[in-house]
Amino acid sequence: MRAMVLYDQADITRAPLRLEEVVDPRPGPGEVHVRTGSESCAR
């Protein structure tokens, strides 16, 4: 899946977010996986 990964809490001009391919998350003991259609992030 594609995800925006935050590498640093920095000014947006330093591009702290990067679009990357990551493995699908798997819930651990006592956790649940909630699938959504889309996400957004407000800064």
Topology, pairings included?
Blueprint: E1 2-6, E2 17-21
Antiparallel strand pairs: 1-2
Can you walk through the features of this model?
This protein is an all-beta fold. 0% of the residues lie in helices and 23% in strands. It is built from no helices and two strands. The protein has strands spanning 2-6, 17-21. Strands 1-2 form a two-stranded antiparallel sheet. The mean pLDDT is 83.
Summarize the structure.
The protein is mainly β. The protein has no helices and 2 strands. It has a two-stranded antiparallel sheet.
Structural class: mainly beta
Number of helices: 0
Give the overall shape, derived from the CA principal axes: elongated
Order of helices and strands: EE
Strand fraction = 15-25%
**Ends apart, CA distance between termini:** 22 Å
**How would you characterize the largest beta sheet?**
2 strands, antiparallel
Give the tags.
43 residues, mainly beta, two-stranded antiparallel sheet, 23% strand
